[in-house]
Fold:
Amino acid sequence: MKSLRELFRIGKGPSSSHTMGPDNAARIYAKRHPEAKSFEVTLYGSLAATGKGHMTDVAIIDVLSKIAPVNIVWQPKIFLPFSMRPTTIWDSLSSAY
Structure:
């Protein structure tokens, strides 16, 4: 079980809800794809609409750029059950074959 300090910690930017989740997702994705040549992260809905002001992009780039270059795609008018979709060059190549 996670401690309260792990669940409720101060994140980057003025809205921790817009940085903590994406930061955590980026860390998980980075761990699964350490061989990536580049990352493209598409942000949807409210994460895309307010992400720059809330530093969502900074949280993601801080994690993934340690492995490879990162491109953020903003899709504020598209609302999905999830708000972030990371992909790697490796994902694109493997799905083509």
Observations:
- Residues 92-97 have pLDDT under 50 and may be disordered.
- The radius of gyration is 14 Å.
- Helices lie at 4-7, 20-32, 45-54, 56-64, 89-96.
- The chain is about 45% helix and 20% strand.
